[in-house]
Structure formats: structure tokens, C-alpha cells
Amino acid sequence: MTSSIRSIILASASAAALAAPSAAGAYDGPPHPGDYCPLGQISVIVPGTSITICQSDPTQSDDPAPDPSQGGGSQDDSGGDGSQSEDLPEFLPSFLNRTWRFSADADGYEDGELGATLSRIISLPAAYAAQDDELVGQDLDVLAGAKVKVYNRAGRRIARAKLDQADRVVAVGKLLPPEKWAEDEDGEAIPTVRAKRITVTKWDVADDAAAGAAKPRK
Q1: Residue 39 contacts by C-beta under 8 Å, 6 or more apart in sequence?
Q2: Would 79 be classed as within a structural domain?
Q3: Are residues 46 and 129 in the same domain?
Q4: What is the residue range of 100's domain?
Q5: Parallel, antiparallel, or unpaired for β 41-45 and 52-56?
Q6: What is the pLDDT of residues 71-107, one digit of tens each?
Q7: Would 73 be classed as within a structural domain?
Q8: pLDDT at position 85, please?
Q9: Spacing of C-alpha 102 from chain mean position
Q10: For residue 214, is it within any domain?
Q11: b vs e for 151-172, b when ≥16 Cβ sit within 10 Å of the residue's Cβ?
Q12: Pairing between strand 149-151 and 192-203?
């Protein structure tokens, strides 16, 4: 009687072991979780056997990843869609790193900034011929802080405040990267130049003397 019960138990265990692999996908080999099973499943050993089967990984979530097209995607830190940065022109790093002479029509000076319209970049090499396409004829913001030296066309130092009387200037400096440009009242980016020195080549008044030219300063 005992022998018959033992035979029945062994037969049942063998049947369960054979049925389990067919239902979940069995692999006859040493258990190495993750080596054989599809993504999202793990391998487990059938009790009392050396057979491994694949089962769903309880640590994996069944929730689908958010669909950006349905509004679930991430946005930039500003809360916008990044359209402004996409609209900004691109320039060669070597172009931005060089100091240029910007010839421009002046349009008033206030609080360390000279408003202007760019006429051209003087002596622009052929290799950079396309770099001013987005600049010429556009508004220009020239940063002219306390360290910027201002000269008249005779080479004499003059006060920065006299820039408000300038009609045309040549600003020597670097174009800032577009993401650092100033903005107008409508929030539109304005090409911005950090000047080292500025020469007034034409005044709104008759001559340099009337504009307040001064003796050179050391």
C-alpha cells in the first residue's frame, strides 16, 4: 500500500513538472535568471526538478510608458515647448570666438547699451561669408559698459554718454551666443555684441567738436 501511494505521488509530480514548462516556456539547463527569458519575465526552477521556466517578473509594472503626443511628455524647465531656441540662428563656434568690427547705424544709447542696426562686418573672411546672413540689416544691441572705451574718428577718447549723439559707429567686440542675446519689448531675441571699444564715425551734429570730443586719456 505504501509503495502504491509513493508511486502515485511521484507520477503526479512528474506530470506537474511536464505540464508547467509547456504552459510557461521551459528551458532545460542551469537556472540563470534573465539569461533565457523574454523581457519582463524571469526564470524559476520547478520544485523537485532541474527544469527552469519563465514567469512574469512581479517587479515590472504593466503600466504603459506615457505618450508624449498625448500631453504626457516632459517639457523644458521654462514650461514652454522650446520653440524660441529652435528659431534662433546658429553660428560656427570659431565665428563666435573671434573679435570682429561691426559697422552699424546708431539708434540711441541708454544704461550701458547702444541700440543700432548692423550694416556689415568689416573684413569678414570668405570662410565666414554666410555667418552674417542673419545679422546684416537687423537690430543690434551693443553692450557698452564702464570698461568700454569710446573714441571719435580722430582717435580721441570721449565720454560714453556721447554715444547717444552718434549716427554711425564701428564696434569692436564679439557676438554673443544666441541663447545669451538681449530681448526687445516683445520678447524677440536681438543679436547682441559685447564691445571692447567703439569708434563714432559719424555724428548727428556738425562735427566732433560739437559732439564734445576730448583730449586723449591715458
Answers
A1: none
A2: no
A3: no
A4: 90-203
A5: antiparallel
A6: 444 444 444 444 455 589 999 999 999 999 999 999 9
A7: no
A8: 53
A9: 26
A10: no
A11: bbeeeebbebebbebbebbbbb
A12: parallel
Say what the pTM is: 0.58
* Number of domains the chain is built from: 2
pLDDT band per the 50, 70, 90 thresholds, residue 138: very high
First-to-last CA distance in the chain? 119
Residue 194: Cβ within 10 Å count: 17
Confidence bin at 2 (pLDDT 50/70/90) = low
Residue type, 179: E
Indicate which CATH number applies to the domain containing 170.
2.40.50.320
Residue 70 lies in a domain: no
Residues 94 and 195 in one domain: yes
State how far the Cα of 60 lies from the Cα of 164, in Å rounded to an integer.
67
Amino acid at 98: R
Q: Which three cell numbers stand for residue 99?
A: 573679435
